Amino acid sequence: MNCLKSFDRSPSTILTILISDLSIHRIRDSKTGDYMAAELYKAIIVGAPSVGKSSLVRRYQTGEFREAHTATIAADLSAITFDFPSGKVVLTVVDVGGQETFAALRNRFYVGAHHLIFVYDMTNKETFKRITPLYEALTEKICIQGDKHLAGSLVANKSDLKSEVVIDEKEGRMLANLLHLEYFETSARTGDNVSEMFLYAASESQRLRHNV
Fold first, then answer.
1. Whether the Cβ atoms of residue 66 and residue 58 lie closer than 8 Å to each other
2. Angstrom distance (rounded) from CA 155 to CA 186
3. Quick one: pLDDT band at residue 80, thresholds 50, 70, 90?
4. Are 14 and 81 in contact (CB under 8 A)?
């Protein structure tokens, strides 16, 4: 499996991930200079423009939410570190710009992904309609065959805008079940379920690798 060089954007720690063909990698903590073993996984976060993909990543890493934001061009990489009882896990998150979603299917960032995070805006039906064709395109690109399914999550973002919701929980869960995805309702503005979403991506990636 090809692994990507990435970094943690939080102000506390910068991690240097050393490229390896193994699932266990050595990472360096820039604060201490110490090397440690960690399992490295890759998650891709995709969806239509302005559904809040980058805002979800920023909320988890910094605890901040910005009303105004700059659209992601191509893809943006960051890394999130988790300390599980079994050891340290680093989740590389590839945030794919909404305008690039389909054009970027040829991009190497999709290769070797362990977890796919599909995001839509609960207040925008068109963003919900894009999930199924995107899922099908990624299934083909990542070479999922037979009765296997992409490991991932379906994320209904902007849950704080309750009066504007047009895709309710029942409809979201039905699609998640159909696509064999875990369902989350999140708000980048309030932080609701953001930590749970990324924690699931890391823990499920680790679980599936060790169960193979």
1. yes
2. 7
3. confident
4. no
Q: What is the pLDDT of residue 165?
A: 97
pLDDT at residue 4, as a whole number: 32
List the beta bridge partners of residue 45: 95, 117
Kindly state the tokens that stand for 28.
């360096």
Q: Quickly count helices (H) and strands (E) in the chain.
A: 5, 8
Integer Cα distance of 1 and 141 in angstroms: 15
Exposure class string for 66-104: b at 16+ Cβ within 10 A, else e: eeeeeebeebbebbbbbeeeeebbbbbbbbbbbebbeeb
Domains defined for the chain, CATH in brackets: 15-211 (3.40.50.300)
pLDDT at 88: 87
Alpha-carbon torsion (165, 150, 62, 193), positive or negative: positive
pLDDT tens-digit profile of 18-33?
A: 333 335 555 555 556 6
* Long-range contacts of the stretch 66-72 (C-beta < 8 A, 24+): 71/97, 71/98, 71/99, 72/96, 72/97, 72/98, 72/100
Contact (CB, 8 A) for 151 and 181: no
Enumerate residues 6+ apart whose C-beta is below 8 A from 145. none
Q: Which amino acid type is present at position 32? A: T
| Model pLDDT for residues 143-184, shown as the tens digit of each residue | 554 556 678 999 999 999 999 999 999 999 999 999 999 999
Tell me how far apart the alpha carbons of residues 9 and 61 are, in angstroms, rounded to a whole number: 7
Q: Enter the pTM of the model.
A: 0.78
